[in-house]
What does this fold into?
Amino acid sequence: MERGPGDEAADRHGRLLAALVGRGDLVLLGSDAGVSELVGRAAPLRIVLVTAADGASADLIRARVEPLVKAARPGGPPTHFVVVGGDAAAARAALAKAAPIIQPVRMGFHHVDAAGALARVKGQALPALEEACARLAEVGPLGPEALDRALAEGQALAQQERAIVDRLAGSRRVTAVLVVACAALLAVSYAFGPGTHELALWRMGANSGEAVRRGEVYRLLASAFLHADVVHLFVNMLALWSLGPMLEALLGPRRFLLLYGASALGGSIASASASAFAEGRWGVGASGAIWGLMTAGIGIALRPHGLLPPAMIAQMRSRAWWPLGINLAYSFQPGIDLLAHLGGGVVGFALVVTVLPRGLTPVEQRAGGERPADPEPRPRPLLTAAATLTAAAMALSVVAALAAGRPWELRAPPALERTAVADVGVALDLPETLAKTTSVDEVDGLRLHTYGRLPETPMMFQLAVLPRPEEMTPEQIDAHLEQGRKALDEEPPEAAVTKGRATRLTLGGRPALSVRHKHQNGLELVTYVVALEDRDVLLKAYVAADRPASWAGIEDRVAATIGPQ
It folds into this structure.
């Protein structure tokens, strides 16, 4: 630090610097032209000392301090700016104006006057600074040799931290593969034409507790590679790219893959469990796995296993909880799968604070170079086998989902096959995919035969046979249907948003009624009553709002095929 003869402010600066360095918990990074910078050895802290000449104006002091304030990096350690010397009123006014309203880091602004008294102008107090000012009369400035040693120690620490940061940014192969896989599967889900995206997501492995309990366990991992839209993908992949490379380098690619896969599985299991309370619930996304990565970072900050130096751990702890709080608040928004987030987060945190980091080489002991160093001190065949099984499970889950769901079938019009309705003597032509998914329920004394299951299929049919009390002539059937038309007009479904009018028509040469209603959930309900010789057949078609274009008009074609078995 340059000092002029008789410069009292520079002398106080030098003595304050010596008192701070002498504490042992601060190291000197630089000292030149009346500005000195110190950082905490094992705690997140930065102190900037600025000399102000006697008689310096508030504008001159502010001009010296403001560039230093603006240079503070977001996410850095708490930083305290200390002006040594200058008129007390001018220095304090300058510091008050230099303090930004929105601070990238926590900041404190202080002044040391000509008597060595410390005043806090803005921000939090700093006990280390208070203790050093109390000792100003007892210490002298650092000599040239002591100053050089302090600077050398600080530069060595800074170089070590830069090397660690470089090593933590050098491995992202697994992260890149995961990002590419998610992006590719979103493109595939859009590839089958307009009106097929949600149906394709279901067929490609969307997570559902009901489906998992039916044995479709591949959905638990396949769903972690699917996304609802481009924005959903972008947000998740941005988070993955922010968290993944550091954890991949810290843990190594094999342990990172285990962390990601286990977190994805934990999130999906937690989400699937909610279907017991919300029928028809399903979801997609990598959020559970990403929450596992986020909480893994918190776990490392709380229990580092010696992987990182104390100063970096302390800095991680100081900012670890903000992302968790923000993401937790966001998770309560409508349409966000809170259980998937929590499930993945619990798994990721538990793995990192217990077994996953054990036996790894500390980062500062790993060899440098262009290629990322292997964090494992010795070969671990069991770890390699576990990582291989995890990668295979994720890949095979996606393949199994595609093989079972066959989303490419959404491009072609469905083939209709003759289907007999059990025990009622009626048959109709149904799309093959709907005829395979059937159930029978008793509702208000009627046996409802259901074909298809939303959202697995683009539409769903329900059929019931309505017996007549006696045989009717054609004229009586005509009057009977007219009464039915009026009844349909008077009693629309409770959930209807747009009420349709019932119309008379002929379907397959038989007299019939038809009415359409729009529902609040986006479904369209089309109700048909087809008059056979001795009974009426009630057919309800529930049509998804985004059904493929190839399925347009299928409900009319199906209704026209109703007849005796």
User: Anything to note?
Assistant: The chain has a mean pLDDT of 86. The chain is about 45% helix and 20% strand. The chain has three domains: 8-167, 171-407, 413-564. The two ends are 101 Å apart (CA to CA).
